[in-house]
Write a structure and sequence with these properties.
Largest sheet: none
Oligomer: single chain
Number of strands: 0
Number of domains: 1
Helix content: 55-70%
Number of helices: 8
CATH class: Mainly Alpha
CATH topology: Dehydroquinate synthase-like, alpha domain
Distance between the termini: 25 Å
Strand content: under 5%
C-alpha cells in the first residue's frame, strides 16, 4: 500500500508540472482518475484490509486493495508519472539503516516528504499521516530504523533524490538537495508530532 499511496500525488505533480508520463506522452484525464481512485480506495479500505489479512481472512476490502495496489496504481503511475516520492525512495537506499525496508515503506515516507515539498494543506497531511499510522507505514526516521540522524548521510540521500536524472524534477516546485533535505526533516517532525513524540 505504501507504493500505491504515491500514485495519485506523483501523477498530480507530473500533471501540474506538465511532465512526460512514464509511457512517454502527456498525462491523461484517465490516468489522473485512476490514480485518484487508487488513493481513495486505500483511504477507504486500507485499514480494513490490513486487519483482515492479519487474521488470515479475505474480504471485499482485501480484494479492493489488491486491485488498487496492482491495477489502479500500475496504470496510474505508468500513464501518470513519477515525481518526488520515488526519487526520495531512491535517495533513502543510500542510508544503510533503510536497507531492510520494503520498497513501499520507503515510498510512503517519500510521499510524506513530497507533500512537505509541495506545502500540502494540513487536512491532507492529517489524512495521509493517519493512514500510514493505521496501516503500519513509516512516518518518522525512527520507523525506518534511523535512530540517530546522520546529517551527512541524509544530505547524500537528498542529493541523490534531487539529481537531474531522477524524478524529483517532475515536481511543480523548485527542487534542490537542501530543499529535499529540509522536507525530509520536516516530514519526520510531522510524523513525530502525530505520534506525540
Amino acid at each position: 500500500m505504501g507504493d500505491a499511496l504515491a500514485t495519485y500525488f506523483e501523477a498530480k505533480a507530473c500533471q501540474d508540472s506538465n511532465a512526460t508520463s512514464c509511457a512517454g506522452g502527456t498525462i491523461t484525464t484517465a490516468a489522473i482518475t485512476l490514480a485518484k481512485a487508487c488513493y481513495d480506495t486505500l483511504i477507504e479500505e486500507g485499514l480494513k484490509a490490513k486487519l483482515a489479512v492479519e487474521n488470515n481472512a479475505v474480504t471485499d476490502a482485501v480484494e479492493k486493495i489488491i486491485e488498487a495496489n496492482t491495477l489502479l496504481s500500475g496504470m496510474g503511475f505508468e500513464s501518470g508519472g513519477l515525481a518526488g516520492a520515488h526519487a526520495i525512495h531512491n535517495g533513502l537506499t543510500a542510508i544503510k539503516e533503510c536497507h531492510h525496508l520494503y520498497h513501499g515503506e520507503k515510498v510512503a515516507f517519500g510521499t510524506l516528504t513530497q507533500l512537505v515539498l509541495e506545502n500540502a494543506d494540513e487536512d491532507l497531511l492529517d489524512e495521509v499521516v493517519g493512514f500510514c499510522m493505521d496501516v503500519g507505514l513509516p512516518t518518522t526516521f525512527a520507523d525506518m530504523g534511523i535512530e540517530k540522524v546522520d546529517k551527512d548521510a541524509l544530505m547524500e540521500a537528498a542529493t541523490l533524490a534531487a539529481a537531474p536524472t531522477d524524478t524529483c524534477g517532475n515536481e511543480p516546485v523548485e527542487i534542490t538537495p537542501q530543499k529535499v533535505y529540509d522536507a525530509m526533516i520536516a516530514a519526520d517532525a510531522i510524523g513525530r508530532y502525530y505520534k506525540g513524540l
